[in-house]
Structures are given as structure tokens and as C-alpha cells.
Design goal:
Blueprint (H helix, E strand, L loop, with lengths): L1 H4 L10 E4 L9 H17 L5 H15 L6 H8 L4 H17 L8 H11 L3 E6 L3 H10 L11 E3 L30 E5 L2 H10 L2 E4 L8
Parallel strand pairs: 1-2, 1-4, 2-3, 4-5
Helix pairs in contact: 2-3, 2-5, 4-5
Length: about 220
């Protein structure tokens, strides 16, 4: 199955499979539609637009730019002529709402089946960037502890920005990667270019995929 789904990988030598979380194991849009509701409500208080209008603008901009882009709140407020001092206060409140949000997320049956399959054949690890409180909440909401042992999960936000991908530092915190002598025995799945760079720095094989969709 794996050779058919991801033919670019030399599966004959793979022993360990790693994953990014957001966008790779689940559709991140399902998180954004939740967290942007209270954020839109807060931004609407500083503008003359309705909560629904702001909500739509947030989602549209996120779909255009993705989660790595950190200017969405500022752009929306600037578009609505909110003065700089109020923009700063509102942005800080929006970030606080974002980071403390409790997500309700589920893995697709397809991803669950895939994780079951690879778990029976390989050692697994997961590395995710972002605020540790929120990323842990996503991890637990998705039920990922069924496939990833705590010692093989790297929340880069727990250690500082210098551990974020593409830095290889977080791999020092992953038990299963200790003693690897051939980096090509590891394949890493991610959805962003930063995931590709992370894999390249470490010499891992890499698959760029969204929600574990088939290559090509």
C-alpha cells in the first residue's frame, strides 16, 4: 500500500515514520472555523462590520495565506480603519483567545486507518510547532496518544522558538530517533515548505502531503 500511495519513498529501508500535525494529520480548516468565531466577535467590537463579515474575512485571508502568516488580524483591523493604539490592544486580545481556545477535533477514518497500518510496521514520532498549550489540546482532542508515545512527541513550543522547524534541535527530544545511523531510514510527512526544509536538514526522506493524501 505505501509504495503505491507514496512512491517517492524508498520504503525498503524505512524503519521510522514521523509526522507534522496541523494540516498533515487533519484538515486545519476545521480548527480555524472554531477559533475564528470568538475572534471575529472581538474584532467586530472595534469596527463597524458585523461578526459574520469579520469571520468571513478572517477565513478568506487564512485560506489565501495559511497559518504561517501572522499579519491577518492586523490586516483586517487596518482594512477597517482601526487606529494603531486600538489595533495593538485588539490583536493582543485576539492572540490570547487563539492560544487559549479549546478545540474539538477528530481524525478522519482515512487517517486513523493509515496510522494503524504504519504503527504495525514502523516506529512513529510526531513534531509540531506552535504554542504548547494549544498544540497539546489539539493532540489530545485528536486522540493521537493512541499512536504516539509521549517520549516520541515533540512540542517545539515547550522549548523555545529556536526549536521550531526547520531547526533540527527538537529531534534531540525524540526517544525513537536516538542512535539512528542512516537518516534515510526515517521518512517525515508534512504539509508545509518548512517541513520539507526540516527533513532536508536532517537528511530524512520527505513526503509533502495534506491530510495524508496520495502523492501526485
Amino acid at each position: 500500500m505505501l509504495k503505491s500511495l507514496f512512491p517517492s519513498v524508498d520504503w525498503d529501508i524505512v524503519e521510522i515514520v514521523g509526522f507534522d500535525m496541523d494540516g498533515t494529520l487533519y484538515d486545519e480548516f476545521n480548527f480555524m472555523i472554531q477559533v475564528y468565531r470568538p475572534i471575529a466577535k472581538r474584532i467586530a467590537r472595534s469596527t463597524k462590520s458585523t461578526e459574520q463579515e469579520i469571520y468571513n474575512q478572517l477565513l478568506q485571508r487564512w485560506m489565501e495565506k495559511g497559518s504561517s502568516y501572522n499579519k491577518i488580524f492586523d490586516e483586517i483591523l487596518t482594512r477597517h480603519d482601526v487606529v494603531e493604539s486600538e489595533r495593538e490592544t485588539t490583536i493582543n486580545e485576539c492572540l490570547r483567545i487563539f492560544r487559549k481556545h479549546t478545540p474539538i477535533l477528530t481524525l478522519s477514518d482515512r487517517v486513523s486507518f493509515f496510522l494503524d497500518y504504519v504503527q504495525n510496521k514502523y516506529g512513529l514520532f510526531l513534531i509540531t510547532d506552535g504554542g504548547v498549550q494549544l498544540q497539546k489540546a489539539k493532540f489530545h482532542s485528536l486522540g493521537l496518544s493512541s499512536w504516539f508515545e509521549e517520549e516520541n512527541v515533540g512540542f517545539t513550543g515547550l522549548y523555545g522558538s529556536e526549536y521550531s522547524k526547520p531547526s533540527p534541535l527538537i529531534t534531540k527530544k525524540i526517544k525513537i530517533l536516538e542512535g539512528i545511523t542512516n537518516s534515510k531510514q526515517v521518512v517525515f510527512f508534512g504539509d508545509r515548505e518548512v517541513d520539507r526544509k526540516f527533513a532536508e536538514v536532517l537528511g530524512f526522506q520527505f513526503v509533502q502531503t495534506y491530510c495524508l493524501q496520495k502523492e501526485g
